[in-house]
Amino acid sequence: MEIKELIKEIKENLEKSANTKSIFGDVMKIDGLSIIPVGSFTMKGGGGGGIGSMGSKTEAEIEKKSESDESGSKTGKGGGLGMTVDVNPVGYIRIKDGNAEYVEIIDKTRVILNTLKVIIFMVVVSGIKSLFKRKKK
User: Fold this and answer.
1) Which of the 8 DSSP states describes residue 71?
2) Domain-by-domain residue ranges, the chain?
């Protein structure tokens, strides 16, 4: 499969499957209240490939019958593709009596982890400062 065809196929599959409706569900309607889920979508990827040869082999290498063409030179091909997709709920839109309101979902785990990172950083900096003060004395 050609690279262009592969990229086109990936794009078409993502358009079908990577949307708020397919991940978080349909708009919910209950007693005149509508809830529309809102999410963030991040996609990262990379790829690479190669082709080449290593020139003439020695007679010993040719006798080992390693992968080579008839002239005794190595040939190669290679390729790779990687991708990661991250989808997170970030909130919802609440519609009632013609009024729309965005309600943010707060990720408590992320807040706690970020707070712990700050505390650990402060402890490390404080420890480093105290080491320098001791050396000066």
Assistant:
1) T
2) 3-105, 107-137
